[in-house]
Amino acid sequence: MEIAALDFKTALQTLRRLGLLLETDARLPSVASLIAGEPISGSWWSHAFAQNIFATLVQFEDHRDVMFTKLISGKVTWCTEHSGRKFLLSAKRERPGR
C-alpha cells in the first residue's frame, strides 16, 4: 500500500473516531497535522508532506461519508456524514427565536 493510501486510511479512522477534523490548525486536531506528524504553523502547502496532505483532502472530498463546511473558527472542518447531521439537527433545535 502506498503512503498516500495509508495517510488517507489513518485520517479517515481519526475522523470517524473524533467526528470532526479541521483541514489545518496548529492546536486542534487537523488533517494537515495528522499527515505531517506534527503541528503546522502557517500554510501546509509548503510543508514536505504537502502532496500527501493534498491527496488525503482530495480523497476526503470524494468519499461518500465525509463532508466539509467552515465550522470551527471559520476554517474548513471535515466531518462524517453522521456527525454532520447530528450537528445540523442540534443547531436547528438551538436556533434563537424558536
Task: Describe the model.
The chain is 49% helix and 16% strand. The chain has 98 residues and is α+β, with helices and mostly antiparallel strands. It has one domain. Strands 1-3-2 form a three-stranded antiparallel sheet. A hairpin with a 2-residue loop joins strand 2 and strand 3. The mean pLDDT is 87.
Summary of the model, kept short:
The protein is of the alpha+beta class.
Architecture blueprint of SSEs:
Layout: H1 3-18, E1 20-22, H2 31-36, H3 50-62, E2 66-72, E3 75-80, H4 81-93
Helix pairs in contact: 1-3
Question: What structural class results from the helix and strand content?
Answer: alpha+beta
Succession of helices and strands: HEHHEEH
Give the helix tally. 4
Please, what is the average pLDDT?
Answer: 87
Radius of gyration: 14 Å
Residue ranges: pLDDT <50 for 5 or more in a row?
Answer: none
Q: How would you characterize the largest beta sheet?
A: 3 strands, antiparallel
Oligomer: single chain
What spatial form do the alpha-carbon principal axes imply?
globular
Estimate the strand proportion: 15-25%
Total discrete domains? 1
How many extended strands?
3
Binned, the helix content reads 40-55%
Termini Cα gap: 51 Å
In spatial order, strands of the major sheet run 1-3-2
